[in-house]
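Bug #2210: token dump truncated for DUF4419 domain-containing protein?
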Amino acid sequence: MPITFQVTDTPASEISNLTAFSLRQILPKKQTSSYELVTSSIPNVDPSDLQSSDTDLVYVGSNAFVLSALKCYSLHHHLVIRPDDVWISIGTQFANYVNGHAEELREKFVSFEGKKQLTVNGGGNIKSADYEGLCQEMTTQISKNIKDPSIRDWIMNDFSTTTPLDRMVSSIVLMSTTKSYFDYRFNLCCNLPSVTLLGEVEDWVKIRERANTLLEFNVDGCMYMWTQKLFPVLDKLVETSKGNVDCAWWNRIVNRIGGGSGPRCLSGWITVFNVFSEKGKWLGNDESDDWFVIDENDVTRGYVNVPVTIDDNGIEKQAELFAGHFCCRKGKDNKSLQPRADWALFELK
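Reproduced locally. Full output below:
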């Protein structure tokens, strides 16, 4: 069951001065005009500025999972974490790593050279298609074309807190993980200062057990170095879910580097969820005591993207899927932040 606990005696403060979230913030900064929003899990988006009318959605930076912890630590807000958020964060990092080492890992994933096109057929048009169903079917196609089909189930979220939205996000994470080996095509034709740890103990145990498989992809030693830091964090999350709360450990989620709240360098155990750049480059070379030290400017975005080709009733269109942690939701009391797992599809113009 969910567990809420006090880490320190500091009361949670109200949230203020956070920027409203716009989907424009996840796009390449110099190419935003090249993207036209098709659909997204973000509700009520204004096409003109890509901003949602939901004022509780706020932007904390390029990685809503990692940087929500920084905001809550620095500004004394309550933090809410789900099993799904931890596994999606691991998944986006893993996707970066695989794509940064695609040729070294090729024999681990596939038995062919180059890229193979995978096609899924669906109904409607580019605006009305069932993208949850299309992406789910694409993960099935991936599992049929990789050496180890169990990788699909390993990456997909299936915890007590998992929603259809989380399954959609993890589907796109899997697609991004294997995008160096596959091109994706959708064919459409018309037809009808405290923490709440959500989930059950079994969810957190499942994440810990799943994480062991990361070591099977250790081509350059980085997976070993990552798991040496990651596993103890996951063990602590399991213990916390059981009610064995180590408040001192939770208060080290973000360590102070250089003094004061709001360090320019990010440390603490949250950094185990930010060890690979978007190109799969290892970022965890610097260590401070138990944890890595990462410049705030080097925090990797918490979402992935993958190109797809859509045959929109005979008209071929190029599009791009984005999925992961885009933004956070403010709590009803305006004192807590919870990272959201979301997705978006853009047509390339």
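Output looks complete on our side. The chain has one domain: 15-337. Marking as cannot-reproduce; reopen if the truncation happens again.
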